[in-house]
């Protein structure tokens, strides 16, 4: 086979492979480029808003998943029966307030999906993060965002659930020591504020609000419905994990 024929065959194979992996992003290319430039440039320095687990990124051994949820509650990849796949055991916890740097924002275009490891949430946007002080050789931390973010504003709103451009140390230092420790360890203590609960367990998937007399109640349900939090007037009253009480 001649070199020219080989090149044509290679390009044809790549085109066919790319055609089988349709783009999963609806954000226009210009908006993606502008957003990536801003988030990896002047806005690159960020602070972790939620204490998060570092786990394997499913089958991609070169990276690590950064998630506020327990591995058994992660819902990024399903098996053939439609059941969520556990990404792997928690390797360590990065506490809220950890300084990070955004190094890349990667959208699931057809080409990107083709290049990603098959056994990974390759149809979702990935935000590449580097922990402050980590060696250059350290695996990047991947924050996975929902695939339906079609506008930069929607992308930023989702990203701000997990990252803050503002140093959170003053906020954390103002909390009682027991609450600070609970947040660092991704645990809960009775009567902690709603913000503190969110910093420890992460943002809930759904929130149900009700009013009983003058008391305002909220029921938070986390992905997979294994974890639930109940607040009264903005304070933690009760929490459940797998049907069992987490706090007295």
Alpha-beta content class: alpha+beta
Number of domains: 2
Shape: globular
Total DSSP helices:
7
State the end-to-end CA separation.
74 Å
- The SSE string, one letter per element, is HHEEEEEHEEHEHHHEEEEE
State the strand order across the main sheet.
Answer: 4-2-3-7-6-5-1-8
What share of the residues lie within helices?
Answer: 25-40%
Largest sheet: 8 strands, mixed
**Cα Rg:** 21 Å
The residue ranges in which pLDDT falls below 50 over 5 or more consecutive positions are 3-20
Number of strands: 13
How confident is the prediction overall: mean pLDDT? 91
- Strand fraction equals 25-35%
Structural overview:
Residues 1-21 form the signal peptide. Keywords: Lipoprotein, Signal. This is Putative lipoprotein. The protein is α+β, with helices and mostly antiparallel strands. It has 2 domains: 20-169, no CATH class; 175-245, Beta-lactamase Inhibitory Protein, Chain:B, domain 1 (2-Layer Sandwich), CATH 3.30.1450. Helix content is 25%, strand content 28%. It is built from 7 helices and 13 strands. The protein has helices at 3-19, 29-39, 110-115, 152-159, 169-173, 177-184, 194-201; strands at 45-48, 52-57, 60-67, 92-94, 99-106, 126-131, 141-144, 163-164, 206-212, 215-221, 227-232, 235-241, 244-245. The strands form 2 sheets. An 8-stranded mixed beta sheet has the order 4-2-3-7-6-5-1-8. The protein has a 5-stranded antiparallel beta sheet with strand order 9-10-11-12-13, with no helix packed on it. The chain is globular and about 55 Å long.
